[in-house]
């Protein structure tokens, strides 16, 4: 049974997406529930990252890209000409596969986005920096080195800093594009625990190649294959009683 409009944060309807003449996504229909973690799984090149980047219009940066269909955020069509793309990317934040901190101090990495928004109150900025580092479970590790370079942090710490940087500007949705791909198991575990905590306040979408990760943390799972959405359901159903044999073959490691 499809949820009500009030339960849906993002709704994508009849999505076809092209890179020039190449069709990358074919007739995708999917909804993302508020305060849930939705995992996108599938082999490399199946369209996972392309789809997730439609939700904050990152694909606008590709000159030959073309979209058909409709995507709404809280009922608003995000591809309407009047829709503010800068505001969209604040509301729908993104954390990438490789940590990408700015070559600035830890503090400046978080204050930068607030200053861009026009916030000048230094005490408020300091409060938001601490709050965001607390939420990303990084505060206790960096509170005495806020004015050191962010590039001196470990890979796992840099990724949590990037999450904190995203949280500082108060998003509604956070897109994670394989956020643990370059991290060790301990750092991966910290990021997973963090995502489970963050879903209390945010809507989360994660692209992952790690089946165990999808099974551990997500509420819903979408399996994409060759640009098509093969199956989308509650995670426990996808991993225990998938409807499509291709889904079963993928999650059991027969291809991918």
In short:
The chain is an alpha/beta fold. The protein has 10 helices and 10 strands.
Task: Tell me about this structure.
- With 256 residues, this protein is an alpha/beta fold.
- The chain has helices at 48-54, 85-91, 106-116, 122-135, 139-142, 155-168, 185-198, 211-217, 235-240, 245-251, and strands at 8-19, 22-33, 37-41, 65-73, 76-77, 92-95, 173-177, 203-207, 220-225, 228-234.
- It has one domain: Rossmann fold, CATH 3.40.50.300.
Q: Return the CATH topology.
A: Rossmann fold
Uncertain segments are none
Q: How would a textbook summarize the main sheet?
A: 6 strands, mixed
Question: Percent range for helical residues?
Answer: 25-40%
Q: Helices and strands: which structural class?
A: alpha/beta
Mean pLDDT: 94
Quaternary organisation of the protein chains: single chain
Count of discrete structural domains: 1
Strand content: 25-35%
Name the CATH architecture.
Answer: 3-Layer(aba) Sandwich
Secondary-structure map with pairings?
Elements: E1 8-19, E2 22-33, E3 37-41, H1 48-54, E4 65-73, E5 76-77, H2 85-91, E6 92-95, H3 106-116, H4 122-135, H5 139-142, H6 155-168, E7 173-177, H7 185-198, E8 203-207, H8 211-217, E9 220-225, E10 228-234, H9 235-240, H10 245-251
Parallel strand pairs: 3-8, 3-9, 6-7, 7-8
Antiparallel strand pairs: 1-2, 1-4, 4-5, 9-10
Helix pairs in contact: 3-4, 3-6, 4-6, 6-7
């Amino acid at each position: 049974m499809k949820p009500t409009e009030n339960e849906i944060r993002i709704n994508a309807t009849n999505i076809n997406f092209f890179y020039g003449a190449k069709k990358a996504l074919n007739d995708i229909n999917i909804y993302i529930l508020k305060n849930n973690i939705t995992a996108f799984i599938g082999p490399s090149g199946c369209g996972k990252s392309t789809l997730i980047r439609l939700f904050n219009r990152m694909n606008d940066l590709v000159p030959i890209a073309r979209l058909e269909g409709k995507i709404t955020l809280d009922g608003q069509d995000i591809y309407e000409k009047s829709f503010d793309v800068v505001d969209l990317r604040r509301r729908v934040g993104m954390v990438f596969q490789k940590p990408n901190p700015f070559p600035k101090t830890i503090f400046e990495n978080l204050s930068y986005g607030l200053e861009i928004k026009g916030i000048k109150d230094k005490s408020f900025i300091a409060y938001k920096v601490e709050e965001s580092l607390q939420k990303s479970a990084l505060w206790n590790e960096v509170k005495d080195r806020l004015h050191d370079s962010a590039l001196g942090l470990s890979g796992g710490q840099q990724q949590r800093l990037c999450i904190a940087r995203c949280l500082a500007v108060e998003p509604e949705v956070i897109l994670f594009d394989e956020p643990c791909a370059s991290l060790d198991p301990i750092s991966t575990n910290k990021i997973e625990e963090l995502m489970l905590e963050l879903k209390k306040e945010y809507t989360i979408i994660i692209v992952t190649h790690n089946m165990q990760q999808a099974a551990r943390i997500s509420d819903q799972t979408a399996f994409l294959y060759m640009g098509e959405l093969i199956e989308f359901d509650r995670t426990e159903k996808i991993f225990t009683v998938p409807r499509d044999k291709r889904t079963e073959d993928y999650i059991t490691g027969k291809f991918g």
